[in-house]
Amino acid sequence: MIKKENACVDCGLPCMGKNCPYRNITVLSCDICDNIVDELYEYKTQQLCNDCVTKEISKEIERDGDVENAEEKIEQELLFLGKIII
What we know:
Elements: E1 2-5, E2 25-29, E3 36-37, E4 39-43, E5 46-48, H1 50-64, H2 70-80, E6 82-85
Antiparallel strand pairs: 1-2, 2-3, 4-5, 4-6
Helix pairs in contact: 1-2
């Protein structure tokens, strides 16, 4: 998910409030593991980090019983997913 966080660095200056560049920074957070990452993938209805989307695709491949060439199928799937980068 895309969220805003307060990343105050306690610079020692008087607070600039909403004008401070550290007050509302945009971060990308995985919907499953909640890790903050540099890029997310749009997978079904979720926004997932690389590790979590790979696990989800792997589960789907296993459910389909189509585990032959699984790594190649995962790579192909990742190419077609929408990516969010900030």
